[in-house]
Design a protein that fits this description.
Layout lengths: L3 H53 L19 E6 L9 H16 L4 E6 L1 H9 L4 E5 L8 H16 L5 E11 L2 E10 L20 H77 L1
Parallel strand pairs: 1-2, 1-4, 2-3
Antiparallel strand pairs: 4-5
Helix pairs in contact: 1-5, 4-5
């Protein structure tokens, strides 16, 4: 059995760790709230842009719009969104597992990766996957310009013919207790199921084609921004839950250590009493 001093030191160490995990939980909860506010602000704009695109697309020739051009898929682009830090449960590992499965199914040499977050960048770079671009250390000061710059990279890869399709894998925020692991097609854009066939008889200036050519890249950038916000909210929610679990585990460990401490102290007292009684009997003899 460990001595009393060792047990006291362990109780103190676990108590200090418990304070840290509790503080991290509170910080993550504050960040989740801010990210949720940004998501709610961006959703109406994203929806209205998509509705406008769906309204125009049936009225023009798809051959005039590069970003909806469907090709034979020989090379694929995969956007993998993770975090820069850990301590978030299975948040990163679930995304990486799905990405790895998709890469193996399509062919390692035919997939270019666009890694958002240090965790995915380090994982795939260390394993010699084809990492086209890596982006990290931007989450703290993330803004729409960041999402726009990232979107431009894979848009250029698609329009130049380097990849024939682009998908994104990320965690979509559902609620504080859970996230949905998603894989969505980004390029080519396909709104077929969302087409609104009603004739609105609108006039477009300068033209429908020009309007679509302007809206398409903007829509992709807004979607990228939305997905980054969803992922960031999911990350902080996962970290909040992980730190809450760690805090509760620390509480249980402290409880067990205190029980062990009391047992050790009682054993020490019993031993001392036996030594005193034994010494007294020896003197009496």
């Amino acid at each position: 059995m460990a001595n009393l001093k060792d047990i006291q030191q362990r109780i103190k160490s676990v108590g200090s760790l418990q304070k840290v995990t509790k503080a991290m939980k509170m910080v993550a909860a504050a960040k989740v709230k801010k990210a949720q506010e940004k998501m709610e602000i961006s959703r109406p704009y994203s929806k209205n842009v998509q509705d406008l695109i769906c309204r125009i697309l049936p009225e023009i020739s798809s051959s005039n719009v590069d970003l909806i051009e469907k090709r034979e898929i020989k090379n694929k682009g995969l956007i993998v969104i993770t975090s820069d830090r850990g301590f978030a449960g299975s948040f990163n590992s679930s995304v990486i597992r799905l990405a790895e499965k998709e890469i193996e199914n399509f062919g390692k040499e035919k997939v270019q990766l666009f890694c958002l977050g240090k965790k995915s960048s380090e994982y795939f770079s260390n394993r010699k996957y084809k990492v086209k671009e890596s982006f990290y250390d931007f989450w703290k000061d993330m803004n729409f310009s960041t999402a726009s710059d990232i979107a431009n990279v894979f848009i250029n890869s698609f329009t130049s013919g380097e990849v024939d399709e682009v998908n994104v894998i990320y965690n979509r925020f559902k609620n504080l207790g859970s996230q949905d692991l998603m894989m969505e097609k980004v390029l080519p854009i396909d709104f077929t199921k969302d087409y609104n066939v009603k004739n609105y008889n609108y006039d477009y200036e300068p033209s429908r084609e020009s309007t679509i050519q302007t809206l398409m890249p903007k829509h992709i950038k807004v979607q990228m921004w939305q997905q980054m916000l969803e992922s960031y909210s999911s990350e902080e929610a996962a970290r909040m839950i992980a730190m809450d679990n760690a805090t509760e585990n620390a509480k249980e460990i402290i409880k067990e250590l205190k029980l062990e401490f009391n047992k050790a102290r009682q054993a020490a007292i019993t031993t001392e009493m036996l030594e005193i009684v034994g010494g007294a009997e020896a003197l009496a003899d």
